Amino acid sequence: xxxxxxxxxxxxxxxxxxxxxxxxxxxxxxxxxxxxxxxxxxxxxxxxxxxxxxxxxxxxxxxxxxxxxxxxxxxxxxxxxxxxxxxxxxxxxxxxxxxxxxxxxxxxxxxxxxxxxxxxxxxxxxxxxxxxxxxxxxxxxx
Amino acid sequence: xxxxxxxxxxxxxxxxxxxxxxxxxxxxxxxxxxxxxxxxxxxxxxxxxxxxxxxxxxxxxxxxxxxxxxxxxxxxxxxxxxxxxxxxxxxxxxxxxxxxxxxxxxxxxxxxxxxxxxxxxxxxxxxxxxxxxxxxxxxxxxxxxxxxxxxxxxxxxxxxxxxxxxxxxxxxxxxxxxxxxxxxxxxxxxxxxxxxxxxxxxxxxxxxxxxxxxxxxxxxxxxxxxxxxxxxxxxxxxxxxxxxxxxxxxxxxxxxxxxxxxxxxxxxxxxxxxxxxxxxxxxxxxxxxxxxxxxxxxxxxxxxxxxxxxxxxxxxxxxxxxxxxxxxxxxxxxxxx
Lengths: 142, 337
What we know:
Chain A is mainly α. Chain A has 5 helices and no strands.
């Protein structure tokens, strides 16, 4: 199957940007509106995306499959961003780090758990306590 | 003569043991902050402002300056060793710095980054001292036409420094422009490209974007490789002092980077990131072997590292001469000053 997915993605992205820029307002040539620059960028991106689709259609390239570990890592990050405010920084970060360590190297569970605890604790102490960065408290309230 | 008197008075204040101590801690903290990916000098200064309220004004400014310059250098450490920029001004150093580390030349890369930063920082301070009043007037004369021309030149250079498909480089440049438009329009206060998401009202922070593009991609690249194929820099770091050939290759890039960074740093809105890109493009253009850029050319480390340190001095000229902070970093200095 010819690789035109990236071209189609950018084409769709550009069309969305054009629509949103039109909605916000383009203004006039002498008094450009808020959406003027993004509309122009969207138009240029549309042309470039069409060229990319044409280029990939004419010269098909071999595409490799995304490794499962990369897909899982991206999924974990997505879930982390969704549960961070609800569960809290400490708990969600602990499980995220544990999952990423497990993806990286296969070690004994107690080693992974210990490393995850240390990393989470260091991050909380340095950024949360020392630098006073705000973290969502979540279920633990810290 | 008045300049010499002022210089002597400045040295008499700076060389006091207490102020030297503030300088040392400031540079130490700044270097540590610069090494930490995602935490730049602006964030570090913001976090430390409450602490310096209790310190004398002169010591506070010295310490904050130390943080600023230390962070400019510290960002190169993780850029070279781990391919993750410590702060946004060290993004371009990743390209050749990491390749040098992979070839076992992490020591010379770190060394030339340090020496280049020192030379450029010293040059920037001297320039700040001598040219501040007159250069500030020129910077104020820059109008919309000049800024538009510089923006177009910068985007053109972005596609020039990238290797591979030109079409994909242009697509990335357009995508970057669109992403930078997300948020509130500074003139009309209209929300654009937020799609009703409140978190996007302030747009995308450059630090977060850099972390995602460089930091997370490095993690994902490592995950995608099996243990047998993983390419980890494990060589012992040695030869921190560059040899004669390294100095010969780096001398002119450091000089050019210092001059370029200093004068661009004066201009409002440029900051310390853009001079590094321009310096890299300039060195690549002037090099007799441009094909070596991206594979571990020391010029690709020396020039940008000199540029970002010199630019950090240049950004203070409008602040100290006219009381006008023209970039986020000098803006944080405005309060203690």
